[in-house]
Write a structure and sequence with these properties.
The complex is a heterotrimer of chains A (182), B (183) and C (823).
Chain A (H helix, E strand, L loop, with lengths): L3 E2 L9 E5 L6 H9 L5 E2 L7 E17 L5 E15 L5 E15 L5 H28 L11 H10 L11 H9 L3
Parallel strand pairs in A: 2-3, 2-4
Antiparallel strand pairs in A: 4-5, 5-6
Helix pairs in contact in A: 1-2, 3-4
Chain B lengths: L8 E4 L7 E3 L4 E12 L2 E12 L5 E6 L6 E6 L5 E7 L1 E5 L4 E14 L2 E14 L4 E5 L14 E5 L28
Antiparallel strand pairs in B: 1-3, 2-3, 3-4, 4-5, 4-6, 5-8, 6-7, 7-9, 8-9, 9-10, 10-11, 10-12
Chain C lengths: L27 E5 L1 E5 L3 E12 L2 E11 L4 E12 L2 E11 L4 E11 L4 E10 L4 E9 L12 E11 L4 E11 L2 E11 L8 E2 L3 E5 L3 E13 L2 E10 L3 E11 L3 E10 L14 E12 L3 E10 L4 H4 L11 E12 L6 E14 L20 E13 L4 E13 L3 H16 L15 E12 L1 E2 L3 E16 L9 E15 L1 E7 L2 E16 L13 E2 L13 E2 L7 E14 L5 E12 L28 E7 L5 E10 L32 E14 L2 E10 L9 E15 L8 E12 L4 E12 L3 E11 L5 E11 L9 H8 L21
Antiparallel strand pairs in C: 1-3, 2-3, 3-4, 4-5, 5-6, 6-7, 7-8, 8-9, 9-10, 10-11, 11-12, 13-15, 14-15, 14-43, 15-16, 16-17, 17-18, 18-19, 19-20, 20-21, 21-22, 22-23, 23-24, 24-25, 25-27, 26-27, 27-28, 28-30, 29-30, 30-33, 31-32, 33-34, 34-35, 35-36, 36-37, 37-38, 38-39, 39-40, 40-41, 41-42, ...
Classes of the chains: A alpha/beta (182), B mainly beta (183), C mainly beta (823).
C-alpha cells in the first residue's frame, strides 16, 4: 500500500548547539539521544545551527482526588517551546511548541513506586518529543554559505536574546564569532 | 579685531583693477575671485561691489554662489581666537562694524584651529563690535543651511564639564560702547 | 515541581560617558527660529527652541542659555526628555553640567514603569534623583480626562532611579476615588527592578477560617536574596504570620516558607494544640555537572492542617507531605562511552490521617502509610563498547520503615478494632506491614543492531534481591533472596509513504514494534511489598519487561507484545499532526504473578492468568486542527462480560480470573479504562480544556468511576479604554471536576480577573472536598496595582497549579506580559 522503508533521516547539519535549556534538562538529553548518527551536539561556538529553548517545562497537576483529599489521577504535561537559528542569528524556524499530555493513576500508599513510574513516563514523552523535533529539523534547509560580513553579525547580535544556559556562550558572541569567518 | 575699522581697506581681483567704476556713486565692482582685506578681516568672493558713503565709510557686498559661497575670516579680540563664516552673499559695513551673511549662512568661532561655537541659519548678522550675532530665517526665500529652515547653534561650554568646581556667578560683561564713527 | 527562580536584578546599564568622546565637555546644540547670541555669553532663542545635550532634550517656546554657567532658563510649555523619563513644565531653570534644576507647574512620567503624575514643583537634584512637591503618582493613563483608577498623592515625592525608590511623604493611596491607604511614608519601585516596600493588603475568606486579611512586606535583602513577610489575622483563628525567603547562589537556589498561628482560638476546645503552623523548604544545588543534590521538606503541625488551610503546602498530595533529601555523584571513567553514578536519598512522609474530631469512621478516609526510604544508597553504571554492546549495572541498598505510622495508629487502631468485631465497615485489611532492609543487584548486557529503518536489541538481565525484614507482631520475620533472569528482544521498524489528507501534503509513517520477554516464574508472594505497584496500562508499560514498578515483584513472562503506531507528519515542516497506536500482548504460557493477584497473602499460590491475549490498548494524539489538540487512551478487554459482577479483577493488562480459562464468555469488547481530552487554545489568555475519564469497576479502584473535568481561561468582557481611562478586560478562570458516579463536584475553582491596564483585581473561590459531606470553600480577593507592587506568593500559584493552560496576566517582574490590554 505504498509504504517503503524509511530512507535515511539525513539532517543537513552535523554540529547542532542547544541553548536555553534548564541546567540538568532531561529534554536536552533526549534530543542528544534522538539525533541520527550523522549529527552530534556541539558547543555553541562551533555549531552550524542552534536550537534555542524558549520554554522547557514539566508540570504535574492533580486531575482527580477522592472525597477525602486522596489523589487518584495525575496529569503529566511536558512542553517545549523552541526556535531554530542559523549562525548569523536569523530565525530558520519561528517559535513553535511541542507538547505532550499523559494521565497516570496515583495512590498515596504506593508513593515510592508511583514516583519512579512518573519519571519513566516523563522520559518516554520527552524522547517522543525529541523524535518529533529531529523530524522538524530534517525539514529545515541547508546551512548558510561562508560566514557573512561583520555588520550582519552585528545586526544579528541585537536580534538575539542572550541564551541563559550557563554552559553555553551567549548567542550574541556566537553570532559574532561566526561572522569572524570561523 | 575692533581696530580693523581704522585700517585701510584694499580690494584685489584676478583682473587686477576694478572692472566698473562709478565715480558719482563712489562705487566699484570687481569680478573674479576677489579678496577684500582690512586689518585682520578677509573676505573672498566671486564678485564684489564696494561703495563709499558720504562720510567716507565703506560698504562691501561680496557675492558668491550656493556652490562657491563667499567666505569671511577675522581675528577676534581674544588671544588666538578667530571667526570664520560663509554664505551666498556677505555684506560688510565697516562703519557699524557689522557683517551680514545672507543665504545658507555658516559662522564658526575658533580658538586656534578648534571650533568652539558654530551657527547655521538663513541670515546671520555678526556685530563684531559688541561680539553678538543675530540668527534668523532672514528675508523670505533665502535658503537656510540647517534642516527645516531653522537656526542651529552649537555651543561648547566654557567651563569644562569635567571640572568639579561650580561655575562662577553669572557675570554679564557689558559690551564696551561702540566707538564713535571716526571721520 | 520547578523552583521559582529568584530574579537576579537586571545588570545595571553601562554608565553613559559623562563627557564627549575625547573627554571634551559635551556640546550643547540649540535649534530655534530666532537666535540672538552674545558669543561666549548669553544667548536668547525663541520659536520652537530645542536644546540637546547628551541624552537630554529640552523644548520650549522661549529660552535663554548662558554658556559660562552652562545654565538654561526656559518658558512656555517647556518639556524635558531624559532617558526614558519626561517632564513638562511652565518654567524650567536647569544647570546642564550638573543635570540639576527646578521645574514649576509640571507633569512628569518615569518611562521604566510608564508611571508619573502632576507636581506643583520638581527639583532635579542630579541625573537620577529628583523631588516633586505637592505631587501625585500613578501608572494609569493620565490624559487629563477622568481621574486615574489609582493614584498616590503626597506633599513630597522623592524619586531616585539609581536605588529604584520612590518615597511619598504624607501619602494617600486612592483607588477609584476611595482612599484605601494613608501612611506617613509610602515607598514604591520606580524602575523595573524589585523593591522593598509594603505590598497592598490581600483579603481571604474561607468557611474554615472566616475572613482574614494580611499585609505583606516585600524585603529585597540583596540582589539574589529576597523575602516576603506578612502579618495578618483572621476572624476565627486570630493572628497569622507568614514568611517566605528566596535565595540564589552561584551553585544553589532555594526557598523557605513558614506559616505560624500563635494561638488558633478556634481549635482550643478540640484537643489540637492551639499553636499551629507549617514549614516548607525546597533547595536545588550542583557542583559542575558531576554532583547534584536537592532537598524538599514539608511539615505541618497537626493532621487537620490540610482541612483548614487547603493548598497552602505546595505538595501535590495535600495529605502526604514529603521530606526528600537526595544527592547524586557522577563519574565518567570511560569518557562518553559510559557513566557511573553513586546516589543517596532519604525519603520520608508526614501522612495526615483524618482529624480525631471528625466523625468519619469508615476506612475510606484512612491512608495506609507509604514505606519510607531511610536511607537509600546505590550505584548505577553503564558502558557501551564499540560494536554497540552495552553493559548496565545497579547495586542498591534500602532501609524501609513505617515510622510515621505510630501517629496514624490511633485511626488504624480504631479501624482494626472495628474490623476484629467483624463489622461491615472493615474495608481496609488489617495493616500488619513492617519495615525491613533490602539489597538488590541488577546487571544486564544488550546489543543493538540499528539502521535508519529498523532496530533490534536483544538483552539479558539478572536481578538478585535479598530481604531481611523486621520482626512482625506475630514474631515472624522474612529473610529471603531471589534471583530472576530475564531475556528480552525489542525490535522496531519504520516505513514511510507520501500521502495527503484534506488536501495537505503529508508523510505517513508506519512503525510496527515487537517485544518478546521471557522471565521464569519465582514464588514472590511471601516477599514484602516496599516500593512496588502495578504499572498503569499504557504504551510505555505494555512495552516493558516487568508489569510492576520497583523491585519487589518481577512478573513471570513468556509473552510477545506486538503493536503498530502511525504518524501523519506535515511534508513541508515535518510537524506531527496525528499519532495513532494499537498494541496487545500475546501470552505463550500461563502467567502466575499478575498485577491482580500480587497482593494475595493466602498460603496457597493464587490461580494463574491463563488467557492467550492481554487487554487491547489504543492510544493517539493530534494537533492537526489549528489551535486544537486531542489526546486519548482506551483500554479494551476482549473477554470480560460487562457489568461489575465479574469475579476477580484484571487490573489493567494481563490479569484475569481463573474462572473463565476457556474463554467461554461472550467476547464483547468492554472498556476497562479510557481517558480522552481536548484542548482549544486560539491565543494567549484564551484556553479551554475538557477531559473525560472512565475507569471500569474491576480496575482496582473502589467502583466504576466516570469523571468530567472542564477548565480554562477566557476573556468574557472587553471594553476598549474609554476617555476616562477605565477600560479593561474581564477574564473568567476556572476548573470543575465533576464526578458522574458520585454526582458531585469533587473539586472546583473559579475566579474573575479584571485587567484594567494599570491594575488587576482578582476574585477567586476554591472548593476542595475534605470529607464525604464536608468541603472547604476558600475565597480570595486581591488587588495588584501595576507599578506599585509586585505580586507576592498566594493566589497566583493557586491558579497556575490547578487551572490547565492558565497564563498569568502579568509576569512576576511586574512587567506586562502580552496581555491584550497593554498593547
Amino acid at each position: 500500500c505504498g509504504f517503503h522503508r524509511r530512507i535515511a533521516q539525513s539532517l543537513n547539519y552535523e554540529r547542532i548547539a542547544l541553548s536555553g535549556f534548564a541546567d540538568r534538562s532531561t529534554m536536552a538529553d533526549e534530543i542528544r539521544r534522538a539525533l541520527p548518527s550523522t549529527a552530534r551536539i556541539a558547543p555553541v561556538l562551533e555549531s552550524q545551527v542552534m536550537i534555542e529553548a524558549l520554554e522547557d517545562t514539566q508540570k504535574t497537576t492533580v486531575e482527580a482526588s477522592t472525597a477525602f483529599g486522596q489523589v487518584r489521577e495525575l496529569e503529566l504535561h511536558v512542553k517545549l517551546r523552541y526556535r531554530v537559528l542559523d549562525p548569523k542569528g536569523i530565525e530558520l524556524l519561528p517559535p513553535a511548541n511541542i507538547e505532550r499530555f499523559r494521565d497516570m493513576t496515583f495512590d498515596e500508599k504506593d508513593a515510592l513506586a508511583k514516583d519512579s513510574e512518573m519519571k519513566a513516563l516523563y522520559r518516554d514523552m520527552q524522547s517522543d518529543m525529541a523524535y518529533q523535533l529531529v523530524r522538524v529539523l530534517a525539514a529545515v534547509g541547508k546551512p548558510t554559505g561562508p560566514a557573512a560580513q561583520a555588520q550582519a553579525a552585528h545586526a544579528a547580535a541585537a536580534a538575539l536574546a542572550p541564551a541563559s544556559a550557563a554552559s553555553s556562550v551567549s548567542a550574541v558572541e556566537w553570532a559574532a564569532s561566526q561572522a569572524a569567518g570561523r | 579685531e575692533r581696530a580693523d575699522r581704522s585700517k585701510p581697506m584694499s580690494v584685489t581681483s584676478s583682473g587686477g583693477n576694478p572692472d566698473v567704476v562709478d565715480l558719482k556713486k563712489h562705487s566699484a565692482v570687481f569680478i573674479g575671485n576677489v579678496i577684500i582685506t582690512q586689518g585682520t578681516l578677509e573676505i573672498h568672493a566671486d564678485r564684489v561691489e564696494v561703495s563709499e558713503d558720504p562720510d567716507g565709510q565703506r560698504l562691501g557686498f561680496a557675492y558668491g554662489s550656493p556652490e562657491h559661497p563667499a567666505t569671511f575670516r577675522q581675528k577676534r579680540d581674544g588671544e588666538d581666537e578667530y571667526s570664520e563664516g560663509d554664505s551666498t552673499r556677505i555684506e560688510y559695513d565697516s562703519a557699524a562694524n557689522r557683517v551680514r551673511f545672507v543665504g545658507a549662512a555658516h559662522l564658526r568661532m575658533l580658538k586656534g584651529t578648534v571650533v568652539t561655537d558654530q551657527a547655521n541659519a538663513a541670515l546671520i548678522t555678526y556685530d563684531t563690535a559688541t561680539d553678538t550675532i543675530k540668527l534668523g530665517s532672514g528675508e523670505a526665500g533665502t535658503a537656510s543651511s540647517s534642516a527645516g529652515g531653522r537656526t542651529t547653534v552649537v555651543f561648547t561650554p566654557k567651563a569644562p564639564a569635567s571640572s568639579a568646581k561650580a561655575p562662577g556667578p553669572l557675570k554679564l560683561d557689558t559690551p564696551t560702547p561702540a566707538p564713535g564713527s571716526t571721520k | 515541581q520547578t523552583l521559582p527562580r529568584v530574579r537576579t536584578t537586571p545588570a545595571p546599564e553601562p554608565a553613559k560617558p559623562a563627557s564627549g568622546a575625547d573627554g571634551a565637555p559635551p556640546v550643547v546644540t540649540l535649534t530655534a527660529d530666532e537666535v540672538v547670541s552674545h558669543i561666549g555669553n548669553v544667548t536668547q532663542a525663541s520659536g520652537k527652541v530645542v536644546v540637546q545635550r547628551l541624552d537630554m532634550t529640552l523644548r520650549a517656546d522661549l529660552l535663554t542659555y548662558d554658556q559660562l554657567s552652562d545654565t538654561v532658563h526656559a518658558q512656555g510649555n517647556a518639556r524635558i526628555e531624559r532617558g526614558l523619563d519626561w517632564f513638562m513644565a511652565d518654567r524650567v531653570d536647569l544647570e546642564l553640567t550638573r543635570d540639576a534644576g527646578t521645574l514649576t507647574g509640571t507633569q512628569y512620567e518615569l518611562g521604566a514603569r510608564k508611571a508619573g503624575g502632576h507636581a506643583q514643583r520638581i527639583e532635579l537634584i542630579d541625573r537620577n534623583r529628583s523631588t516633586a512637591y505637592n505631587a501625585n503618582y500613578t501608572s494609569c493613563t493620565r490624559d487629563g480626562t477622568g481621574d486615574p483608577d489609582w493614584i498616590i498623592s503626597g506633599d513630597k515625592i522623592d524619586i531616585d532611579t539609581s536605588t529604584n525608590e520612590g518615597k511619598a511623604q504624607h501619602a494617600v493611596l486612592r483607588f477609584l476615588g476611595v482612599p484605601i491607604l494613608a501612611a506617613p511614608s509610602l515607598t514604591f519601585p520606580v524602575t523595573a527592578e524589585r523593591k522593598s516596600g509594603w505590598l497592598p493588603p490581600t483579603g481571604d475568606l474561607s468557611t474554615r477560617s472566616g475572613f482574614s486579611i494580611s499585609e505583606p512586606y516585600y524585603w529585597n535583602i540583596e540582589p539574589n536574596i529576597d523575602a516576603t513577610l506578612s502579618a495578618g489575622a483572621s476572624t476565627r483563628r486570630g493572628a497569622e504570620l507568614a514568611g517566605e525567603l528566596r535565595y540564589l547562589q552561584p551553585n544553589d537556589l532555594g526557598q523557605v516558607t513558614a506559616y505560624l498561628l500563635p494561638d488558633d482560638f478556634s481549635e482550643n476546645h478540640t484537643g489540637i494544640d492551639t499553636t499551629r503552623g507549617a514549614v516548607e523548604w525546597a533547595h536545588e544545588g550542583s557542583r559542575g555537572d558531576w554532583l547534584t543534590y536537592s532537598a524538599r521538606l514539608q511539615r505541618v503541625s497537626d493532621s487537620a492542617y490540610w482541612v483548614d488551610f487547603p493548598n497552602q503546602m505546595p505538595s501535590l498530595t495535600q495529605r502526604m507531605l514529603p521530606t526528600d533529601l537526595s544527592g547524586t555523584r557522577r563519574f565518567l571513567p570511560f569518557g562518553d562511552a559510559g557513566e557511573i553514578a553513586a546516589y543517596a536519598r532519604v525519603e520520608r512522609f508526614q501522612t495526615l490521617q483524618e482529624p480525631p474530631n471528625q466523625r468519619e469512621t469508615d476506612g475510606l478516609s484512612v491512608i495506609p502509610v507509604p514505606f519510607q526510604r531511610s536511607p537509600q544508597i546505590g550505584v548505577r553504571g553503564n558502558l557501551t563498547l564499540a560494536d554497540q554492546l552495552r553493559f548496565d549495572m545497579e547495586a542498591e541498598g534500602n532501609r524501609f520503615d513505617l515510622s510515621d505510622r505510630p501517629q496514624e495508629n490511633n485511626a488504624i487502631g480504631r479501624i482494626n478494632a472495628l474490623c476484629s468485631a467483624g463489622s461491615a465497615s472493615c474495608l481496609t485489611p488489617l495493616d500488619t506491614r513492617v519495615g525491613g532492609a533490602r539489597a538488590h543487584f541488577i546487571a544486564s548486557v544488550s546489543r543493538s543492531f540499528s539502521s535508519e529503518w529498523g532496530h533490534f536489541e536483544p538483552r539479558l538481565a539478572i536481578n538478585g534481591t535479598t530481604y531481611r525484614s523486621d520482626v512482625a507482631d506475630d514474631g515472624t520475620r522474612v529473610e529471603a533472596t531471589r534471583w530472576v533472569p530475564t531475556l528480552s528482544g525489542d525490535s522496531s521498524f519504520s516505513f514511510e509513504r507520501q500521502t495527503d489528507l484534506f488536501g495537505r501534503e503529508l508523510v505517513q509513517t508506519l512503525e510496527p514494534r515487537f517485544l518478546y520477554v521471557l522471565t521464569p516464574r519465582r514464588n514472590q508472594f511471601a516477599l514484602p511489598l516496599y516500593d512496588t505497584a502495578p504499572k498503569d496500562f499504557n504504551e510505555v508499560s505494555i512495552y516493558s519487561t516487568n508489569e510492576f514498578t520497583g523491585n519487589d515483584r518481577i512478573s513471570d513472562e513468556n509473552q510477545l507484545t506486538a503493536g503498530v503506531a502511525t504518524r501523519y507528519n506535515d511534508a513541508g515542516n515535518g510537524r506531527e499532526l496525528l499519532r495513532l497506536g494499537i498494541a496487545q500482548k500475546f501470552l505463550f504460557s500461563k502467567q502466575w504473578l499478575t498485577t491482580s493477584n500480587f497482593q494475595d497473602t493466602s498460603d496457597q499460590t493464587p490461580p494463574p492468568y491463563t488467557r492467550k491475549l492481554s487487554d487491547l490498548l489504543l492510544y493517539g494524539s493530534s494537533s492537526a486542527m489549528e489551535h486544537w489538540s486531542f489526546d486519548g487512551i482506551i483500554e479494551l478487554d476482549p473477554f470480560r462480560a460487562t457489568g461489575s459482577g465479574a469475579t476477580g479483577s484484571s487490573s489493567g493488562d494481563s490479569g484475569s480470573s481463573a474462572a473463565d480459562t476457556s474463554g467461554g464468555s461472550t467476547s464483547t469488547w468492554t472498556v476497562q479504562r479510557a481517558v480522552v481530552s481536548a484542548r482549544f487554545q486560539p491565543g494567549p489568555f484564551k484556553t479551554v480544556s475538557l477531559t473525560y475519564r472512565f475507569a471500569s469497576s474491576n480496575n482496582g479502584s473502589s467502583g466504576a468511576s466516570r469523571q468530567f473535568e472542564v477548565g480554562g481561561q477566557w476573556p468574557v468582557y472587553h471594553q476598549p479604554p474609554r476617555a476616562n481611562g477605565c477600560g479593561g478586560t474581564l477574564y473568567a478562570v476556572g476548573r470543575v471536576d465533576y464526578s458522574v458516579t458520585d454526582r458531585r463536584a469533587t473539586y472546583a475553582i473559579g475566579g474573575l480577573e479584571y485587567d484594567a491596564g494599570c491594575w488587576i483585581g482578582r476574585a477567586l473561590v476554591e472548593r476542595t472536598s475534605t470529607g464525604s459531606q464536608q468541603s472547604t470553600t476558600h475565597f480570595v480577593l486581591q488587588l495588584e496595582l501595576n507599578g506599585l507592587s509586585t505580586l507576592g506568593p498566594g493566589s497566583l500559584t493557586l491558579l497556575k497549579d490547578n487551572v490547565p493552560g492558565y497564563q498569568p496576566l502579568r509576569n512576576d517582574a511586574g512587567g506586562t506580559t502580552a496581555s491584550p490590554n497593554s498593547q
